[in-house]
Structures
1.
Amino acid sequence: MKGLLLSCSLIAVALLKVNYAADSKIFLATGVGNLHSELIDPTTKENNCQNTPPYPKRVTGAVGGVINDNTTPLVCGGFPYEEGIVYTDLCYTFDFAENRWSPSDIALTSPRRFGASLTLPDGRIWVTGGQGEAGTTASTEIFENGTFGPGPDMPVPKEDHCIVQLDETRTLVGGGGPISTSVFIYDWSTQEWEVKSPLRLGRRGLSCGKFETSDGLQVIFVGGEGEGYFKKTTEILNVDNDKMVAGPEMEKENYGAHMVEFEKELFLVGGTDDFFSTSDILKFNVEAMTFELTEASLKEPREVFVSMIVQNDHSIRGLLRKTTKATSGECSKTLTRLSVGGTRDLQDCER
Ligand SMILES: *[C@@H]1O[C@H](CO)[C@@H](O)[C@H](O)[C@H]1NC(C)=O
């Protein structure tokens, strides 16, 4: 009996090891350069060496979210800087099972770049602000029932700002360009904007994320560019009592990163320190109020990109089994053994 239990649990452990333990992954696409799309788990260094294709267009400042019950990335808009046009409304979807981007019938209601976006708890996607034909815009769009339509205007135009979902009903937007200190919360249940305490310094290209302490719900605003320089500094808003205070400094400046909440922890993914894009993933340690370099890193340095949480379902696991190394250093061996895509996989993975 004891032996049977033991072998059952061994099998369970073995199964867990085959499949990635996490229920979700972070999907990243676009940025500056011809970057591969990538799936990351910031809690492990055994992420990379996937052979996921680049976004079909070299765009920066795109927006997006996940559709089909958090399984399908949808990326739209941005600045296709090679095409002699400065804004686009085009969207592409990524199919994990096929490991392929496809042009989509979905389009933004108006071309825009450098907006901020997220997937709302009810599965709709909210795209806010950015630059369009009429300059920096306060307009927003909501993806609902298969199509983008108008959303509530922000109180002021914003581009290159940050956005974070606070709870089931409230979304915060902060900072952005033209270099701004303003912070607002939209409450979907009352359909009203609340003005919050401003940032102490104007910042664009900042990142923001939420966390809880015994003092309540907090939002940290990280880095960005203000008054001609990139920042190491952060600020923290106590959402409940509306106090904005200085937060911890990072070791390096950071612009164009994403703060991502993953398994109840906050990670700062990518960005640039003014000179170089980074592939670093920092963890924000809420207890110690410090930024810690994690062992995880991006396959490629990336700034001004789109990130979203995707469900780690069977098609993602299939893709990872086909294209990911099992442990660091074993990339080519694993791929050779599986011989999926042959030498093309190998070349893409050997970096
Ligand atoms: C989307 O579909 C739902 C359910 O049919 C409906 O309640 C909602 O009003 C629709 N939204 C829009 C924008 O058409």
2.
Amino acid sequence: MKPTLLGTGGSEGIPCIFCTCSVCERARSLGGHEIRSRSSLLLNDDTLVDFSPDLFYQSLQGKFNLNRLSALFLTHFHEDHVNVPEMESRLSALPALHSPVAVYCSPETAHQVQSLFKFYFNYGRPDARDYFERYKLTPLPLWQPMHANGFCVTPIQSSHHGYGVAALGYNYIFEKNGQRLLYAVDTGWYPDVSWDFLDGLPLDGVIMECTYGDYNLQPYSPEHLNLSNMLDMLHHLQDLGCITPKTPVFLTHLCHLHSMTHEETQEFLNRCGYSVQLGYDFMELPFFT
Ligand SMILES: [Zn+2]
Ligand SMILES: [Zn+2]
Ligand SMILES: [Zn+2]
């Protein structure tokens, strides 16, 4: 299967269930690409990046299951990227899935996920279910390539903070079949250590967040990108020799502060000087085949 953007929305999704803003109301009436569930990337039927709170809906809409999942990469511990209560459903699978899914993430994210595993395990039920039998938390060091399910994966540092800790989130470089893909979600402008690591590293594709879209960020957010910041990131990647104007770039993690429709946004991107496509839920990506 091709890598698939299961969800392309920011933390609240579009439409946000509590919201009556014009973007959310328009999404409710138009549907289609204006609907954005919370972000996950299905790399293969055994490899997932982030565990969206919308995975149940996504599995229905996309007609897939995660029965073969064996590797889960987490970018960070925000609720739109890891939904621990939903992870419990793997304990109910029939026939039973005994082999644990390897959960790869930063040490800080592993610690936070572990806390919730313990909370749900210990919260007083006589039939408490053991997450640790079905998920194996595997902290990864930054910058060190590792191998999982045929992918060579290198975590790099994003500019985005998880809950309660100063540690920054992870972005990932995935390599397979001679192609190298950068997954840049969630992040603001990269810290110098990440730019230094990327310097001169050719990329065959980029998936990049564009949380705020055409929303005018003042001041510049260290946590997320808008369209202008995203283009700054692409300029810098080009300056470092990582991409060319023809390198395919896909945008995800849009929030409802972005006012343009999908079509209007794509028309803007068609004139930006790079090969950028606005992602949409269930968009298949031309990598690793
Ligand atoms: Zn997010
Ligand atoms: Zn809204
Ligand atoms: Zn986040």
3.
Amino acid sequence: MPAAHCCCLTAIVPRQAVRVKRMGQTVPYFDIGGRPAIPMYGTLYPPPLRPQVPVSVIAVTGFSIYLRLTAQNTMTTAEIARTSKYDPFSIAVMRDPLPYYKELRDHFPVHHMPQYNAWAFSRFEDVLSIFENDAHFHSAEGTLSNKEGLSKFEKGAGPKWQKDPTPLLGFNETETYGKLRQAMMAELKPKSVTALADDIRKRTNALLDKLIPQKRFNVTLDFAGIVAAGSVCGMAGVPVEDAAEVLAAANLATKQDPVTGGFPPDWIKNRDTLLEICRKAVRRQIAGQSDRPLPVIEKLRELEVEGRKLTVNDIAILISSILLGGSETLPKVFAHGLLELNRNPSQKAEVMSDLENNARPAFEEMLRYCGPAQWFMRTVLTPVTIAGHKLEVGERVVALIQSGNRDEREYPNPDQFQWNRPNTRHLGFGNGLHFCIGSHLARLEGKILLQEFLRRVPEYTIEEAVRTPSSFQWGYSSMALSIA
Ligand code: HEM
């Protein structure tokens, strides 16, 4: 019996508990081992079955029984959300967190996850309040974590800052962090970013010149991702020709094992590849071999942090934050945005009627509606009350930004994409201390990509859109489209 048969899933149930006499019979669910399908990695997989709804047994082999799963006997994700506790690393949540967010906002706005010493906040105002109360939180444990990292904690413990080598930007102690952030923003402030517009447009059109004649291409990996990675390569002193390699490394760096929520195989090797690309760029700049002086690297070299100058490796780690943040998020937002425009032809026509003025607000709605990054974490530094709940030192908060962006308390019809929504505010770039340093660049790139793509490709068909399960970056990592 092939385990991967399309409509069969393996349920691992102790053999002796299976009261199945003949293959092919239909039995009430509770006859099969008397319990829901397997808790695996702390979650339910395959999807739990509806109690008492009969299921067809296809075969029994060893410790596995094969069931024919249909819409009638499997729960929907909304039903699962009502019956199970939210866990960002459960397989069902990593597949589609949106029904869970609704459930959390409506019924559990302050949701305890004792297994991680953490509280999840899902309403817009509460997520904003976490970001705005940043003096009460620290990021020594990072602003992101996987299941393994979040499962380790010491109750009541204060921050343990890593200092050597200097970690990724967000993990640094506040004073050091402020200095590093300033240096890293050397070419990310509005004036410097505006000066990049012509170059971004040129690279965008050069790629379209190559892709349009192919009639079918991957909008995330071959188009928007290359434009985005190219911009940050230019800042970090990495040859623009290496944009595809940087993009692949950035995508792998934020990828999670879709079953465990942990690091995928090759994660460490990939991180080292990315760091080596960055170390080479720093060495080239120090040796005066870069195409132009690179303000980000120069400013980081000038700094004295913790009584010492930054090493080549320190600087490489820091600029890798720019390569990561700058390469992998924007293409997913853009690809999802194109999908929404195609689903809503009247909205697409409205945006296209005046691309010069409409691309900007349309991209802003994409930032609200299509953001792949689901949450960021903080650790409590001093007791603070959020949503009426007092948080203690050492507890973690999980700020669910995409839930906040869909909060019906903040937006009318939040689950509807609306290109000209009056978005007075959203959480797409976070807020407060760690507000995205690349927001100006991302907005400029998003606007130009939309303008040039829709101007030259007014009609397209989405052939394949892949959104790999992930607790963190749940976005279209690959989207193929075709043009007539
Ligand atoms: C559409 C594109 C983008 C989105 C949706 C996005 C989103 C975000 C969000 C939500 C945060 C806040 C993290 C937190 O609160 O812990 C963040 C931080 C960050 N972003 Fe972006 N980002 C985008 C583009 C970029 C670009 C283009 C760059 C680099 C040029 C970048 C670099 C960073 C860095 C380095 C941080 C960490 C900042 C810190 O911890 O202080 N991002 N981003």
4.
Amino acid sequence: MSKKWMIIIAIVILLIIVNVAALQYTSTNEFCTYACHYMEPSGESWEESEHYNVTKCMDCHAEPGMIGYIQAKMDGVKELYVHLTQDITREDIEAMEVHVSNESCLQCHGNIMDDPNHQLHERMDCGDCHLGIGHGEEVDVIECGECHPEMANDHDIDEDLSDEDLEEEE
Ligand code: HEC
Ligand code: HEC
Ligand code: HEC
Ligand code: HEC
């Protein structure tokens, strides 16, 4: 092999290593949170949550799988661009409609769908009831009666609903 080719191959390998390192570094919680100061409140509220230490930002904020990972990285490049060219504030971040897909939650909570009440609501977003999940220590679960006004609030999520409850639904 000529010397020229060896140099080219060496450069390609070096680029791959640098890229992988960059991909890994930008997936860390530290990077997600502390690279931009306006992310800090999200990192702090995550630290207060039950999900601290058992999740990474990417577990919820990227669709599961390789495509989701690549998508999250591409969004990240867009975010970096916006970060460098515009003046972002915390208010802008809070005004964003951040959506976490059920698939992300189900990676770890797959067995929740054995529960009849969760099955009834499987087409909804987990976050419709689990308000503020992942951020902050108090997690409010919305009471049944707030969405089903004719229903009492005292149902347990995992009880079998009686026919009477279901009639009330009509
Ligand atoms: C257990 C899942 C979960 C984890 C882990 C998680 N988040 Fe979130 N995050 C959510 C959900 C759900 C929302 C959107 C609904 C809401 O506002 O609560 C959200 C909202 C956000 C928002 C929008 C701002 C806001 O207040 O609405 C930002 C920014 C954010 N997360 C960043 C992060 C960062 C940074 C980390 C890691 C340090 C992280 N998240 C970890 C679930 C998670
Ligand atoms: C990487 C794995 C992982 C992901 C992703 C994840 N969780 Fe969790 N979650 C856990 C673990 C671990 C616990 C704490 C131990 C337990 O009780 O199961 C927990 C606890 C919970 C609890 C009970 C504790 C509480 O805060 O009230 C709920 C509800 C919950 N998760 C819902 C969700 C929802 C909704 C999502 C998606 C937005 C999600 N989780 C994403 C692993 C995960
Ligand atoms: C219609 C509202 C609703 C939806 C939608 C919903 N949940 Fe729940 N979930 C509840 C309620 C209510 C509880 C019981 C909470 C309690 O007792 O504190 C619960 C409990 C849980 C628990 C804790 C179970 C335990 O053994 O303590 C987990 C984990 C959970 N939900 C995950 C999810 C995931 C993941 C999704 C989306 C795929 C989801 N939930 C969608 C209402 C909902
Ligand atoms: C955030 C709003 C919300 C909350 C909280 C909620 N539900 Fe629902 N529920 C819905 C929606 C929306 C549907 C229709 C789901 C569908 O068709 O995919 C539904 C469907 C149902 C059904 C099926 C019958 C029907 O009307 O389609 C029953 C039964 C039910 N819910 C019971 C409960 C119980 C019990 C609780 C409390 C543990 C509860 N729900 C909490 C929104 C909610």
